[in-house]
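ping. complex inputs:
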Amino acid sequence: MRRKITVLPGDGIGKEVTRGAIEILEAVAERYGHEFEFQYGEIGGTAIDNSGTPLPDETIELCKSSDAVLLGAVGGPKWDNQPSHLRPERGLLAIRKQLNLYANLRPISYFSSLAESSPLRKEIIEEVDFVIVRELTGGLYFGKPSERTTHEGKEAVVDTLFYQKDEIKRIIELAFELASKRKKRVTSVDKANVLESSRLWRETAEEVAAHYPEVELEHMLVDNAAMQLIRNPRQFDVMVTENMFGDILSDEASVLTGSLGMLPSASLSTEGPNLFEPIHGSAPDIAGKNIANPIAMILSAASMLRLSFGLEEEAEAVEKAVKDTLDSGARTGDIAGGQTSTLTTKEMIAEIKGAILDQA
Ligand code: NAI
Ligand code: MG
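pong. complex structure:
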């Protein structure tokens, strides 16, 4: 199979971990006889420095001319005090909108060898296996107006939570499709006791559920969901929610498995290429030190193989290589627990790459 992949390393550890994903994909290509062509683009702070904008038009053109996009992470203290149109995170919001990436899938699963690096007890996190489906191109992060203003002569501010019903419907349908292939349970998270938008969300979920009699639908208020994630995360199969709620809950869920550095995500497009990125940011505190955990990025590349290229066997080979590498005791600092000897980013990448080639 021949595929063209746009790689957007971004800032900070984004550059270090994307190199890992590429090495792993090259190993997959070698083992299975595929040809992956990589083309590189700029986004975030790096793009601001070089082109004066967080998402240059050439980057979007590159993405649209490829079969899938891999993104590292953006941001850093260097750009924190910029006006908002010159902030790296603007590049993220813009690429989601321009590639119509309406759904962000964040699988949360338990690695038995990492039980000791979770702050929660093993009995609580054992066998955890669910997916958060976050709406990505609407809701509070995109609604207009979003601005500083004045009200009755005093300083004020407004953000807007706006959805068209069709946007709610398509993300909930995706959650039901996923659940129908998994444990057949959808938890729809909202704040229907307060927000009108959540009441439409809830009604829409009921309408979609009527077409999936085999899938059970449960509604949960977002504050309760935040608590249930810690009390009993095993109850979840597919959780679907609004953009900001999903942002917050998925970061919370990330601690279940031990480290942000372990969690991949997939952003699906209504047309065009899908985008795959780790859920973590650019980690300025450890950037450039060759100690970042590359696994979230590598598992994102595995999702790309599965969801964009239909290469299930190859995706599983990467996931197995990660699991075997962890089982062998290999750890980067973030997942080391009490262990004193840790691997660098490059060493971890080499271990996982070796595990892929060894399986052959
Ligand atoms: P962060 O995810 O970059 O880091 C949070 C903590 O987790 C840090 O202590 C970091 O060292 C650690 N960490 C994250 N990824 C790791 C990895 N792969 N291996 C080992 N440790 C890891 O979030 P933070 O610090 O809130 O944000 C830093 C910058 O990243 C900000 O500019 C923020 O806006 C941006 N950001 C970008 C995102 C993206 O590109 N999708 C997502 C979240 C934040
Ligand atoms: Mg976040």
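The radius of gyration is 20 Å.
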